[in-house]
Amino acid sequence: MFQGSQSINMDAKGRIAIPSKYRDLLAAACNGRIVITANPYERCLNIYPEPQWRDVSAKISALPNSHKQVRTLQRRVLGNAMELELDANGRVLLPATLRKYADLDKKLVLVGLNEKAELWSEESWNALLDETDDAPLPEELLSLSL
Amino acid sequence: MFQGSQSINMDAKGRIAIPSKYRDLLAAACNGRIVITANPYERCLNIYPEPQWRDVSAKISALPNSHKQVRTLQRRVLGNAMELELDANGRVLLPATLRKYADLDKKLVLVGLNEKAELWSEESWNALLDETDDAPLPEELLSLSL
DNA sequence: GGTAAATAGTGGGTAAAAGTGTTTTTTTGT
DNA sequence: ACAAAAAAACACTTTTACCCACTATTTACC
């Protein structure tokens, strides 16, 4: 579904234009109805087509919430989820609370990860790409060959 | 599949001509559909014929993403992957985000590594060739004989 | 080795699409 | 009912994809 990264601009009203290559796909998959919410691990936003969101949402709701960490995850993800619809020009208005959560200003990067997309501030995204992690690699990565 | 290195030029619009010796191979292997993405370890790009990419993609998607390092790898590799098709003149347009990631300007080097190819800026590639590394060799290299 | 022909590589131009900003209308709250 | 804010509609600007034409390089043949 989503693939590749591309930079996009947010206008003064907090709107972003969804890249045209996704518009047809989204129209087919969910009538242009997407759900956007906080990514609980990093300060970015997750974007799902409405049907995918229902699966994710159900999975998270089903977690046993006696653990504090589970409750926190539920609050961040479910509590920030907003359903949005593309306007006639293929734009969506990002809610102010989410803009603040992910620290978004004018320059953003939309990152496609198959079933979902992530929305980052350009600054944070570049920081991620620059990051060099000296921690030992987990077993799974050591044996990986690309 | 890919072998040997050769220098190629990027034009003002960010297009590169795929060397003719690969065109027939690519047409046969994947109808000219290739996937290009970030190399997560060095600042260069990886180029795969579409079928090979599917294997790599599946491997990376399957990694447990509770590790931060895995998420970062997934974002860099999957999040930057773009499927491209050769145009009528055997060229592809490199997406702006990838050009920036690998710091590409006019002069590039395409390096064939069998199942994939790497694309470097000429400058970075030459720096790599000049590099001398005094670190101890890993086990796999100690037992190697060329 | 030289010449000609074919193939590879390069550089724009243009029409269509995508993106962006502004105006107008509608809604909501006081 | 009026003012403010939000949403929708509209109009303009920029970018991109596709096409065509030219130049350079390689290959083949004499």
In brief, what are we looking at here?
2 copies of one chain form a homodimer. Chain A is an alpha+beta fold and 146 residues long.
- Placed side by side, the strands forming the largest sheet of chain A appear as 1-7-8-4-3-5
Helix % of chain A is: 25-40%
Q: Could you tell me the radius of gyration of chain A in angstroms? A: 16 Å
Structural class call of chain A reads alpha+beta
Distance between the termini of chain A: 22 Å
What share of residues are in beta strands of chain A? Answer: 25-35%
Count of DSSP E strands of chain A?
Answer: 8
What is the count of helical runs of chain A? 6
Report the uncertain regions of chain A. none
Largest interface: A-B, 24 and 32 residues
The shape of chain A, in one word, is globular
Please summarize the sheet with the most strands of chain A: 6 strands, antiparallel
Work out the oligomeric state of the chains in this entry. homodimer
Query: Strand-and-helix sequence of chain A, N→C?
Result: EEHEEHHEEHEEHH
Averaged pLDDT of chain A: 91
What are the defining features of this structure?
homodimer; 146 residues; alpha+beta; six-stranded antiparallel β-sheet; two-stranded antiparallel sheet; 36% helix; globular; DNA-binding
